[in-house]
Amino acid sequence: MTEQFKMDAPATERRLDDMAQGLVGAPLDRPEGALKVTGTATYANEWQIEGMVHGVMVRAPGNSGRVVLSNREAVAKMPGVLSVIQDDRLLRNPAQGTANKAPVQGAQHATYLGQLIAIVVAESFEQARHAAQALKVTLENGEMVPVDPATAAVEPQEDQTLDQGNLDGAMSEAKHSVDVVYTTPSHSSSPMEPHASIASWEGEDLTLRASYQMLKYNRNELADSLRIHPDRVRIISPYVGGGFGSKLGLAPEAVAAAIAAKELGRPVSVALHRQQVYEATMRRSETRQRLRLAADSDGRLSGFGHDARVSNLPGETFAEPVLQASHFLYAGANRKMSLELARLHRLCAGSVRAPGEAVGVTVVENAMDELAHEVGIDPVELRLRNIPEKDPESVKDYSSRRFREALQSGAEIFGWAKRPGVKERRDGEWLIGYGMASAARINALMESQARVTLLPDGTARVETDMTDIGTGTYAILGQIAGDMLGLPRDKVDVILGDTNLPPAAGSGGSWGASSSGTSVYIACEAIRRQLADRLDVNEHDLMLKDARATYANQTKALTDVLQGDEIAKLGHVLPGETSDAVRQATFGAYFAEVAVHAASGETRVRRMHGSFAAGRILNAKTARSQCLGGMTFGIGMALTEELTFDPRDGHVVNHNLAEYHIPVNADVPQLTVELLEERDDWASPLQAKGIGELGICGAAAAITNAIYNATGVRVRNYPATLDKVI
Ligand code: MOS
């Protein structure tokens, strides 16, 4: 039986606050954690399937032209080689929409360097790799095509354009103003686990063991690419070794494995190697952002302008939504915003770690820092003065917003009051600076389903195709079901990552926990009602704890209530009117102390603090970990992270973890996180909002603002490598 719930009105019942078990919110460990660190969790490439053979993908050596495999026959005869496949379905555009889509082009025509255009399959991986390296790929009739954002054709994104009041007028009349241009480079998601798929067919039914974030969408994408019905496709993905957006949509290996397995009648395993992950999955677009801020003598904003340019491949619709938080973060009656998309023959741009805000809020926060110095007030105070009462464009209320508290509490915890003036503090050869920035990220609830079964032995099972990409889904769904059903955490079995299970929202856009958690909550409520019926009591008078039901001065073991029966309910949540009725977002503040070497310009982050508010915290440990991860990526974005393209052909130059510098332990100092609890009735019946990506949205600006405080140098082109600082 399905319990459907549409989020059409605020969900004001705070039942998770009163649950006797007290699991929700507790900092419980991830139940799959031990499996992962002991090597017993099976990742996509680790399945051993009877008769399995191996495929290695082959890349285009240039960014335009018809693909010709000139020695295909010879390669096909190499030892162990079973097939050399060049198929137009390899990279076809899936019609089913997700945030990310596979590149639109087929395999016959290259549109970017590194595009995966063929697959070589052999008995062993080594034979396949050897043959793939021997395959000669040439591009016929290729011309030079634009790879440089400065010279590419540009398309305005009309739906992102805003012109409210008169920004030019506000700028010219302003007592203080800032008009600055910043750039951020392309980023790569860089998950530890490369994209990998094992495809096996039984007749017309395909099973794909893979590593993806949003299985119900991935299933549709795969079916579309193969031109078969989604019912024929099963995807299994119980453990995901990081995705960071690059596994929201299908990567090329999934379709290639499926096509090869079908042709050969044998299971085919395809893993992208590290270079291919960098060259052929997703990049975050580079951005060029102009910020115009107009303020009065007190620093109160009269104008707010944000114009951005991003890029993508021709035909792709995704445009990094850089302006997303600019619409609701700060006041300013005169507002102007625009986004334009440059068409570049570089690999496909898509969602990477908080698309939009990660780079958009960062640059807004740099501009706000510049304004604070213009006005001559404390940067925290500047933010406090510009927190709008209502959404400055839609004039809607905010669903919940402990933004002010995050700024104030974060400043207190960090010791912001002791901040030095510009270039004022020194520690030996190191220049010391403090910086801060705000955090903001949109919140969304997505359709999601889960089945919860209370079993006759007094344990429960939660089943959904939701994924856990290292974020804590296994833990959180068990906590919610445990509390709702009065079961200790270890009496709840959470089964995820299989499209044979009810379709969930998937892990993306920070909506995973609140959406899938709500579907579990709804199913559990229905089970509670059925238990109450059996006991002839009002469900609200039923207390469930330690696998016992207590009501009207009686207590009974759940096993006795069930009497050999099981109760199974399907919870189904749909976003409804509350998503549009109010402005829903999460907020926070970062504070950083940096040391910049006076001679070399090397920057070390000495400490960093974040205070965040994201509704109800479902698990204090996993939520904190998400924030730590976000701030860590913020350090990378500020100081080192940059996907570098050869300006002649768009070749990704630093295509591995050795040269694409995301922070390692030695780069990350003590980070502290404060979580400010909220109850957001508009967001979900859990009163939870998404916290997954909040910790990166603006984090880099706290560091670059601290570099300014230390050195007096504004680095407006990210990352702030030492050559730019000194
Ligand atoms: Mo996220 S970039 O939606 O995985």
UniProtKB/TrEMBL annotation:
GO molecular function terms listed in the Swiss-Prot or TrEMBL record: iron ion binding; oxidoreductase activity
Stretches assigned to the Aldehyde oxidase/xanthine dehydrogenase a/b hammerhead domain: 38-143
UniProt-listed InterPro entries: Ald_Oxase/Xan_DH_a/b, Ald_Oxase/Xan_DH_a/b_sf, Ald_Oxase/xanthine_DH-like, AldOxase/xan_DH_MoCoBD1, AldOxase/xan_DH_MoCoBD2, AldOxase/xan_DH_Mopterin-bd_sf
Xref: SMART domains: Ald_Xan_dh_C
UniProt xrefs under Pfam families: Ald_Xan_dh_C, MoCoBD_1, MoCoBD_2
Protein name from the UniProt record: Xanthine dehydrogenase
